[in-house]
Amino acid sequence: MRAERDELAVAKRVLERITEQLANERASTAKLTAGQVGGQAVMLIPHRTSGVEEATLPPDYQRILTAVGQAVGPVMARQVGEVLGVDVSVRAKLEPLRGKLVRLPDRGRLRKLPDGWFTARL
Predict the structure, then answer these.
(1) CA distance from start to end of the chain
(2) Are the C-beta atoms of 68 and 118 separated by less than 8 Å?
(3) Which of 51, 71, 62, 72 is nearest to 109 (CA)?
(4) Sequence-ordered list of residues with C-beta below 8 angstroms from that of 34, at least 6 positions apart, any chain
(5) 45: nearest Cα among 89, 119, 102
(6) CB 111, CB 38: distance < 8 Å
(7) Residue 16 contacts by C-beta under 8 Å, 6 or more apart in sequence?
(8) Three-state DSSP class for 52?
């Protein structure tokens, strides 16, 4: 019985140590905004959580969020491009903006309607 109790005590300490390490890793990755850290890729656009501010986003994404937020209603990528000064008549210049717009709803920063329009998240 003593041996089993000792094994359980060791297992408990290992579990506590692993839990603490995971919590530290999660806390540190929530703050990352760079493209690569320590040779590993990290998200430039973190998921929307209470601890992650819009100011941590790259400037292009901040401008997109501001343009969509200032719009009177839902907007398309073309309308956001016009506000940001992108040449919307050239598809090659509009598509990167559309790609950025699509990432924002995936991360909980904007809302994408079924018809492809974007709105600010409430």
Answers:
(1) 58
(2) yes
(3) 62
(4) 42, 44
(5) 102
(6) no
(7) none
(8) coil
Digit-coded pLDDT (tens) for 60-101: 888 998 999 898 889 999 999 999 999 889 889 899 999 889
Q: pTM score, two decimals? A: 0.60
Separation between Cα atoms, residue 38 and residue 12, nearest integer Å: 31
Tokens (6 digits) for 111: 């809302």
Tell me how far the alpha carbon of residue 1 is from its chain's centroid.
50
- Beta-carbon contacts of 73 under 8 Å, excluding residues fewer than 6 positions away, are 119
State the CB neighbour count (10 A cutoff) for residue 109: 22
Q: Which residues contact 69 (CB under 8 A, 6 or more apart)?
A: 120
Q: How far apart are CA 112 and CA 93, in angstroms?
A: 21
Q: Distance between CA atoms of 19 and 6, rounded to whole angstroms?
A: 20
Spell 43-79 as b/e; 16+ CB within 10 A means b: ebbbeeeeebeeebbeeebebbbebbeebeebbebeb
